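Structure ticket #2291
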Amino acid sequence: MLHQRTIRAIALVMIKDTNDRLVAVSAFDADDRDAVYRAIQSRRDVRDQFRGDPIPDDVLRRLLEAAHQAPSVGFMQPWNFIVVRDKALLEQVHTAFSKANAEAARLFTGEAQALYRSLKLEGIRKAPLSLCVTCDPTRGGEVVLGRTHNPRMDVYSTVCAVQNLWLAARAEGVGVGWVSIFHEDDVKAVLGIPDHVEIVAWLCVGFVDQLYEEPELALKGWRQRLDLNDLVFQDRWNSKPTSGS
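Resolution: structure written out below.
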């Protein structure tokens, strides 16, 4: 066993070494900056606009690399990505969705239920592939730097990976649709996912030629985008910024 003084000395040397590896950064130029915001603003949750052609391996690799570059608490990188192309497996997952979707429809009443039933909420059969994105809470050990007081930080980290992939996909002309309507145990059984691993996202992935100009649920009358001014507080909850803040 290393003596504590030795461990501290090694840590100090490593910290100095990492400080020596800082590199200069600056704001993006206008074109690059605008491209980032364009990807953010034009990204859509795709359900029915997928083309049938396959995603080339190099494109898929770039998307997965983008996801893997996401920030994670304690650098634990809790994610895994299961690439699903097998039609039989996709059909089983679609069956799991259909069961849960019927249950969900019954939670709404009247016009809301009718509108819900009219919405297409997945592209499992139409997209050429799906990605099951998971979170392994054990990857960083029992005590994870940064997760000591918020045990859900591993899941939040995995969501960052999903968002990275989604924005990279927009830049590649690839559409992504997040399916969340299923019982987790049903999909775990289909894919053989261990009990302790959590499914964070089922993503339908495929090239698209068209996207809605606004979020589909807004265009079809489910909900509208909230006004950002109503969501920004100053210093304290529900305290509105003063003019010029």
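Closing remark: The chain has a mean pLDDT of 94.
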